[in-house]
Write a structure and sequence with these properties.
The N and C termini lie far apart (about 60 Å). The chain has a 5-stranded mixed β-sheet. Strands 9-8-10-11 form a 4-stranded parallel β-sheet. The protein has about 525 residues and is an alpha/beta fold. The radius of gyration is 25 Å and the shape is globular.
Length: about 525
């Protein structure tokens, strides 16, 4: 075989024999050449190596949606995925997650299609309208509003990647996006019915963006669900009491956790931190965020970042009580007007004072500053603190003094990883801390599993224990035998901390933010 154009690839395929109720793995060496797809490889195995291998396929053109499988932990269409593009000599193939397995790689789609049935994926109109001999006119501009949501091929890759799908009552990104497609269709008359149906479970969505990242048709399901929530709030359709309390608090106190705005800077008492309202000018504006300002557990992250800044002799200041919630969770919950109020206040302060860049504690603040209006209407340089620290390490501006002999893993925050594509910097920091033994989780980087705290769910969580993404994630880490789950987000710290308390494993594993580890390691011996 030509090593450049053809080689043998090891396929480890997860199997299931329903007659023996047995799960097992079969291994095959498959000759692969340029252009060979995963489906081609599966067909080769069945035709030449093992005729008992069972899988679905039909069109081979990425249109029927029947050949979805997990490829190295990521949901993909077998016919769309070229083997050489994966860049590995060993490939693990599994059936799609979040659905029962019938045999080998064949899963049962019944629950998936039942959810679609619930949202009525047809035009809803009065019966009399169908009796008229006339067309239901749709203008090109109206069609443009939902056309990209109408090309779903029902492959269920979005559902297979969705953390909220572990709760059966969640309608799922595919169904809810289809629901929004009809809501946006001016020919449809079922708006209120559709919003009422989606309001029953749409709050379980964490806006982690997995659905959008894994859609082979590049449908932006995550944004569709945010728009749907916005309409629910706008129309006054029922939404959970916890969500209402979160929004009411953000309106009244300028934070979602019902804490007086006058106490926002209390975390910094005795730390002698400059405030921009007094000094007017600084190099770094440290945007602390809500949880790190008010929550006792997360205040330690803010204090750690201050310690890092001082170790590096960084000229920095905070907004103090003038800082308001960045609004990210509020926007993802669907309250656009409230988000704009919060954001415009912060923008007015950004314009008022002089600084070189903003460094944030939270990936959520970072993401919304970089991507959402009105923040994007002004020119500001924004970094998440993990970027700031990683850059300092490379330039030799930050050095570690103390060994931390612990076995750790890293949980990728969705708004830092999947939404902002920041994967390397946190890992570079961890690998630089002396004494740390770093073990990667099986689900990591863009295939990471959400903590369950996004889009306000950190405050609205009401799911049963085993249906919480945070519990699922902690159990995955426990299997690795690590002592610490490290992350880089106060919301992840909160949900994962709650999970270890809930399943009573505080004595065997703990949650830490990267900033806390760095702070500990720069201590003078």
């Amino acid at each position: 075989m030509n090593s450049e154009n053809e080689k043998k690839i090891r396929f480890n395929i997860q199997r299931f024999d329903p007659e023996r109720d047995k799960h097992y793995t079969s291994k095959y060496a498959v000759p692969i050449s340029v252009g060979t797809t995963i489906l081609d490889a599966l067909v080769y195995v069945k035709d030449n190596l093992d005729g008992t291998l069972t899988f679905r396929h039909q069109c081979r053109m990425g249109q029927c949606g029947s050949c979805g499988v997990m490829v190295n932990g990521k949901p993909m269409l077998a016919c769309y995925t070229q083997v050489f593009h994966l860049g590995t000599d060993t490939i693990k193939i599994e059936p799609l997650t979040n659905m029962p397995v019938i045999k080998d790689l064949v899963v049962n789609f019944d629950s998936f299609f039942k959810k679609h049935t619930q949202i009525k994926p047809i035009l809803i109109k009065d019966e009399d309208a169908f009796k008229k001999v006339t067309e239901f006119i749709q203008t090109p501009s109206d069609l443009k509003k939902y056309w990209d949501k109408a090309i779903c091929i029902k492959c269920s890759l979005c559902n297979a990647s969705c953390p909220a799908e572990i709760d059966p009552k969640f309608l799922g990104p595919s169904s809810l996006t289809a629901n929004y497609r009809f809501i946006a269709d001016t020919r449809d008359g079922g708006r209120n019915k559709r919003l009422k149906k989606s309001s029953e479970s749409i709050w379980l969505c964490t806006s982690c963006n997995s659905c959008t990242l894994n859609c082979p048709k590049e449908i932006d399901c995550s944004t569709a669900l945010t728009e749907e929530r916005s309409l629910i709030i706008e129309e006054g359709v029922f939404f959970p009491k916890t969500a209402k309390e979160t929004l009411d608090s953000a309106f009244k106190y300028y934070n979602p956790i019902r804490m007086p705005s006058r106490k926002r800077k209390d975390w910094s008492i005795n730390l002698d931190i400059k405030e921009l309202s007094i000094v007017k000018e600084t190099m770094v504006l440290y945007f602390v965020g809500c949880l790190s300002s008010y929550d006792d557990r997360n205040k330690e992250i803010a204090k750690s970042i201050v310690k890092i800044f001082r170790n590096m002799d960084v000229d920095f200041a905070i907004l103090g009580n003038d800082e308001w919630c960045c609004g990210d969770h509020i926007l993802r919950l669907g309250e656009k007007g409230l988000f704009e109020m919060l954001a415009e206040h912060n923008v007015s302060l950004f314009k008022k004072y002089t600084f070189d860049s903003i460094v944030t504690t939270s990936p959520h603040c970072f993401y919304t500053f970089v991507n959402d209006k009105p923040y994007t209407d002004i020119e500001i340089k924004v970094k998440h603190y993990s970027q700031f620290v990683a850059e300092a390490l490379k330039k030799g501006k930050l050095k570690f003094n103390k060994e931390i002999k612990k076995k750790v893993t890293y949980h990728d925050p969705c708004f830092l990883g999947k939404r902002s594509n920041i994967y390397d910097e946190p890992r570079e920091i961890l690998k630089s801390v002396p004494g740390l033994e770093f073990i990667e989780m099986e689900r990591s980087r863009e295939d990471s599993f959400c903590c369950g705290g996004g889009a306000g769910r950190v405050w609205t969580e009401e799911a049963d224990l085993e249906k919480r993404p945070s519990v699922n994630r902690v159990r995955e880490a426990i299997k690795l035998g690590v002592e610490i789950i490290v992350t880089a987000c106060p919301f992840c710290v909160t949900t994962l901390d709650d999970a270890i308390k809930t399943i009573d494993c505080e004595d065997s594993i703990k949650i830490m933010d990267i900033a806390e580890l760095v702070s500990e390691s720069i201590e003078t011996l």
